[in-house]
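Write out the 3D structure for:
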Amino acid sequence: MIQTFYNIKLLVQTETQPKERVCGAEMATLNNIENAFLIVRNDKIEAFGNMSDYQKVMKRYETEDEIKEYDVTGRMIFPSFCDSHTHIVYAGSREIEYIDKIKGLSYEEIAQRGGGILNSSKLLINSSEEELLEAAWNRLEEIKWMGTGAVEIKSGYGLTTESELKMLRVIRKLKEMSPLTIKANFLGAHAVPLDYKGKPAEYVDLIINEMIPQVATEELADFIDVFCDRGFFTVEDTERILMAGIKYGLRPKIHANELDAHWGGVQVGVKYNAISVDHLESMGEPEIEALKGTETMPTVLPGAAFFANLPLAPVRQMIDAGLPVALASDYNPGTSPSGNMQLILSMGCIRYRMMPEEAVNATTINTAYAMGVQQELGSIAVGKIANLFVTEPIPTLEFMPYAYGHNKVEVVMLNGELQ
């Protein structure tokens, strides 16, 4: 089937020679086409260009059995957002801890009282797969209608072999059910459970000797992750876990430099060729230097910094140093209870002083890279999967991050199908 969109006010982020990712000063450039058309065949992008060529191009399809045409006058089309860092399989909310935050308790103080990740773990252990699936499905539907077409989902609230596997099986079911592209991340090393308090090495042994082999046997994960930071896991713990995961074919990711600038999370991520290092609220020149010339994507989570009142990652310094930057939501019940990537786009501009073009690149092609799906998603390019959204009538590209208070997505297409 052929589907065409015509009279597009602005077709955003087109590529004739697709890039793996966008770095440094190049992040400020977007290839857009004014007064454009876009043609989709089945689930792939077939062609695009200026409306002056539309009728000539459409003659190629005169013998097609089914052609659907959509006039989108006044509207823009973007590639769908890719959200490369979420924790959306969880049980229950944590608004009481939100009150603790308002009263001034730190993330670490809440965790030490049995809150935070350990609180979510307790709730999840007592929830069935069916309950987790229903709740996560609703969250997926929510983010779909705000423009997200691909999402990475982490485990990490189980903290026992049985419960970690339960989370990953829920993610596998979501992959089967949802039109979104979904990647699974095994994050057994999210926190040290209470049963192993004072014995973190024994919990690391459990992850390596029991959890990872079972995750690999059932082919439940694409990535392996570690919360390498003060009060959680050391660099030595992280290295042991990553080496075990790599042996089973799991590409590393790292929760790094959220709490401690000198912990070494970024450096250990680079050492083991992590596809991304995420958070980065506390980092300096040594971390920026460590990332130069590597395949590791620095990923900033504006929602977590906002909600947990953390320092802001030095995004301008990273871009000026020639690094790529990705922006993801960190959708989770404790520190970022929103998966709205339009809001993340706005925060990138407002709080991190990114230009709108930089923020679009950071929420599409660079997050696609951080999920390992940049060959299929993240831009408008011939042969890529037709994951895109049509905006409501808006005046300019800049209006997307500027008008942060409402959903500007009018139509969603995933895998070439209107939702």
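Residues 200-217 form the longest helix (18 residues).
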